[in-house]
Design goal:
37% strand, Alpha-D-Glucose-1,6-Bisphosphate, Chain A, domain 4, alpha+beta, 5 helices, 164 residues
Length: 164
């Protein structure tokens, strides 16, 4: 078994992977994912809004934001960028409260597929139990799918020139 196959099998039981073919060029998808003006329009599940306090998309940079739930609850979050390849890859750790450790690791890839973009987001949790808990308690699977649907809608508006 090669090293890549071994690495994949080592994390399979603690991963969530989401893939979406988006009807937008890769540069536009990456811009929507890394510009706080765009993030505010789509980040989070249905009914959520997002306030970005700071966003520094570079290796060692951080994105600090709060997700506001439809029930009025605020969810502080941070993302610490580990690897950034503009237009191709974002790799980061994701946590809640600023002083808390990362809760999971994320790799987002942006790949050309004709005039569209294949976006893949892989979340890796420290344990299968941690993954199962966020799925069960926070609806992570449905929330991620709703978030990507909101991205898809935002990209359509960007393509029509309805956003800046």
């Amino acid at each position: 078994m090669n090293a890549k196959a071994t690495a994949a099998s080592d994390t399979a039981d603690r991963e969530l992977v989401f893939t979406r073919l988006l009807d937008a060029p890769r540069a536009l998808v990456y811009q929507a994912w890394t510009d706080p003006r765009h993030i505010a329009s789509w980040w989070g599940p249905n009914g959520f809004t997002t306030t970005t306090h700071s966003m520094d998309v570079r290796v060692g940079g951080r994105w600090r934001y709060v997700m506001h739930g439809p029930d009025g609850k605020d969810w502080p979050n941070w993302i610490g960028y580990i690897k950034v390849v503009p237009g191709e890859l974002l790799e980061y750790d994701h946590g809640g409260e600023e002083s808390a450790p990362a809760e999971f690791h994320v790799t987002v890839t942006f790949a050309d597929e004709g005039s569209k973009t294949r976006l893949t987001m892989k979340m890796v949790f420290p344990t299968a139990a941690a993954r199962d808990r966020v799925v069960r308690e926070f609806g992570a699977t449905e929330g991620a799918n709703q978030t990507l649907s909101r991205l898809e809608q935002h990209l359509a508006q960007m393509g029509e020139g309805k956003t800046t």
